[in-house]
Amino acid sequence: MIEFDPRHRIWLLSTPTMAYALRLDEDGTPRHVHWGRPLTLEQAAAVPPFRDPADSSFEYPRADGAEFPVAGFGPPALQVRFPGGGQEIEWRCDGHTVEGGHLTIRLHDRCRPLAAELHYRVHEDGEVLERWTVLRHTGGDAPLEVLRVDSAAWSVPHLAGYRLSHVTGAWGSEFRLRREALPGGETVLTSRRGVSGHHANPWLMIDDGGAGEEHGEVWSTALAWSGSWRITLHRSPAERLRWSGGFGHDGVTWRLEQGESLETPVFAGLYRPDGFGGTSRSWHAYIARHVLPAGSELRPVVYNSWEATGWAVTEEGQKGLAVLAAEVGAEMFVMDDGWFGARDSDEAGLGDWVPNPGKFPTGLDGLIAEVHRLGMRFGIWVEPEMVNPDSDLYRAHPDWVLHEPDRRRTLLRNQLVLDFGRPEVASWAHDWLDRLVGGHGIDFLKWDMNRALTEVGRPGAGDPGRPWIDHVRGVYEVMDRLRADHPRLRIEACAGGGGRVDLGVLRRTDEAWTSDNTDAADRIAIQHGFGQIYPARTMAAWVTDSPNFLTGRDLPLRFRFHVAMAGVLGVGGDLSRWSAAERGEAAELVALYKEIRPVVQHGVHYRLGEPPLTGVQYVADGRVVVLAWRLSSPFGAPPAPLRLRALDPDARYRDDDTGAVHHGAVLLAHGLPLELPGRSHASVLVRLTRVE
Ligand code: GLA
To answer: Is 46 exposed, middle or buried (0-12, 13-18, 19+ CB in 10 A)?
Structure first.
């Protein structure tokens, strides 16, 4: 997987679909050579040197093609202010090590106390290259000021054009896929919110403008970080593209004391020759195998009480919902917000993590025993990073929140952010969570995070940039410890819906709450964007009431189910208001989901069709599941049929429900015949099994 040519001083990292090469030049600077289709070491040595700018005194040849740019006029991957003020860096290479699929290149500055390690890792069973950087202050009393340190910079071969795919959004409308020509100059994708964000997500794809769902070259990168981040793309006047990205946003700097190190998060990248679909499938496989802690496990069908009760939680009410949830086939009953402290609205109680005595006079055990008696596991909502000023915790520890002295403490959703970078705060959070989970045998936490960070300060911390990083690391540490001590515990990542979904949080959680918008028609687009990178097994999707609480839209129960069945199905409606017939239909659909679940959650994912008729296809072990949804379509203009993918053209496939037998070649060429009633909001689930 990793080869080195000492003569040309070239390293080559290979996966089955991709090669990545870099070299060391005469003065010790690592230069980028290649990222794209597979090459041999000999071929990599023949790649022409990267020469970007025209030869003129207004350019800076030393920066050409730098693997980790520290100089020149493009966006730097590293900027350090040395004691006394200088900022120039001149690398010398101390050598490299290769351990399995992990290459480390060690650099130090020629005359200043700065060392860096560039890390590259490929996995035997994957197509993704993981990169990160470690900086170290190697001597002298004065601190180094790190103005920027990215995880990695990426360059693609010279293409005829450059198109950027990424997502934007907001609360209730996350993961809106955008595919747009990349303008000349610099384009910044960033979060300054202290959280990866609803408004953006730290990944991107690049193609030449001609790639499609199943064809064309695509280069893609994704950052494993749940706090503020920044990725700067630079399309140069000479039409070369590179980008650099990492944690922190503009203005967030760090102080490095003597002997101290700073390690960046992983910025992972992959190249696929087979379009956006192939790119998504590679990310899905990587996340399942190398990111998720329990990636090979099937996710349970959750019932969540939030939309049913809001804050009006009572023990009797929860028990009543649990009976109905068990009837429809839920496997995990999750009690949402409102169970603790003085939490009767979003104005009070956050931070006081004891059951509200009026709602649970004898504690949680009665409810949990009932949930277990009904054959379900029990989960509970928590928001450990937050505090309402109207809480006993805040009255006792007003200094525990992120704040700047003499500045206002901005309330968002009536809450402030606890500084998880302070050891006493993280240990307080760990202790109550540990007691809650251990003391009650809790199987599942919905870990929420309902506001962006503002006034990110820690008086006395010295280094103004640290709280931005420390908070995220503190959250990671608490999650990691809980999982290590409670191996059965599973965690759902949530931040007001999909405000914190990234490779960093998925390393310690099992699924993510995709969006607070549970309107199935809106969800089709949200799920489309989510699935560009993140696999179905992480995409929590509930069926809720109709009309929808957020949009007022009325949708058939089957349609709502068929959309949610494309991910980790859950139920989140007020089942006490559903008719017996609706609950009966729901029970049938939940049972059907359990039957297709191994294919949906562990199969290979293909996106089908164009609006108004779209769908997804999952394939595993000769089984095929298609979920298709049609939004309203004009009379007389039937949408194009859904042509299936990845079938054996010579095989036949039997419809498990109707018994009809289809030729693979016909399904590939002419699509799946679908029975879609009416003109709007129709949906269908088709299960096929390969018969010969
Ligand atoms: C956030 C979550 C919701 C719900 C509420 C509770 O908005 O995304 O699902 O848990 O908080 O306050």
So the answer is: exposed
